[in-house]
Structures are given as structure tokens and as C-alpha cells.
Amino acid sequence: MTDITDAYFSNLIGRLEELKQVLAEPMAQAAAVILDAAHGDKRVYVFGTGHSHMLAEEVHYRAGGLAFTVPVLVGSAMLHEGAVISSVYERTQGLVRPMLERYGMQPGDVIIIASNSGVNAAPIEAADYAREIGAKVIAITSIAYSSAIANGRRRLADVADVVLDNGLPPGDAVVDLEGTGLRVGPVSTAVGVTVINAIFAEVASELSKSGDAPIYLSANMPGAAEINQKLVKKYRPRNPHL
To answer: What residue ranges carry the coiled-coil annotation (predicted)?
Structure first.
């Protein structure tokens, strides 16, 4: 293992170990909010622009994942239809509402919004929209990053019901390249995926105590086809991506 590889692994592992303690209470709060929604047969939406959208894909139709999750996936807010224009999109006011209206979010639902910088228009408008209709908002964001660049602007952390501070530095990358002034090794995706999977695992554990945990199986596991088919039939009406 090279020094750079070791530095990246060590940094990421250290951050996850720290967040396991620092985020214990807010993760418990997030799990309680999601559990309450699950008991009411509500849905948990996951939204992010740019690379943050990968958290939405992570929970969608996922082996070991919960079936009541709904990813908010719009090409123009992601990367594959044009990375440069997606950066413009996430900073443009007024584009998120019609996008979210497609999903039929309801009072009592939950939306998890991932935004490392925490100041762009799209995630903040998503939070505003959700709260207007009576949905709960859970934010995964960097307080240090958003505080450094807000310059008087609203931050995602200011409008969320539960804030999960990923503790990452402004700019995301964590490994210095000596003599260049540059950094490599972004960690927001790895941290975000770990946090969100940990929360859903906790929710699934609680639901399983009453035998009511709608968990997908890997397609290659025995009995998966039948179990997954039943879950898709139940949850497809409110998930356009199933």
C-alpha cells in the first residue's frame, strides 16, 4: 500500500470511527422519524444533486434494503446527462418543486436530502417543499463546509428537522498532495452511504421485531424472486422507479 493509499484509508476509517460516536444521537433521531413513517405506511424519499444523488440510488431496490424508500432521480440534476449543466441546475432557483411534485409526496412522509456544501438552491428548495406539505426533512451535510461558504445564504442545516453533520472539510477531498497545494480523495459519498445504511439497518431491526420489515433480498438468494415480487407490487404505486 502506498503512502497516499494508506492516508486515504486511514482518514476515512478515522472519520467513520469518530462519526459513530458524534452522530449516535442524531442517527437515533433520524431512525425514530423513519420508523414513525414506516408504521404509518409512509415513504422515505432520498434526494441529492450531483454526486450526492448516489445516496438515492444506494437505497433503491437494494439487497438488504427497505422497500419503502423512494429515490428522487432526475437526469438533469445528476451527472450522466451533462455534469457541467447539472452544476448550474442545482444552483438555479425554482426548478425543484415541479420535479418533486411528480413523486406525490404526502404529509407524514420523510425526505432525506444529501448536500455536502449545504447551500445550493435545489436541496434547500426540496426541504422547503417537503415541510410545506407536512413531510419531515433529514439532512446529510457538512456544517463546516456550508458555514464557510454561506455568506448570508440559507443552509440546508437551517431548514431540516434532523441534521446529520458528516464532519467533512470544505471541498470534500482529504488527502494533501505534497508540494502542489491540491487535495484528492473525496469522502462524502463513502461517509454518506455508511450513515444512511446504518440508519436503515436500525429501522429494519426495529420493524423486524414485529415481523413487519419489508426487506429486499439479493436476486441470487433462495426465495428472493417471490419476496421481492411481493414487495414491488406493494410499493410500486408510489415509486416510479420500480
So the answer is: none
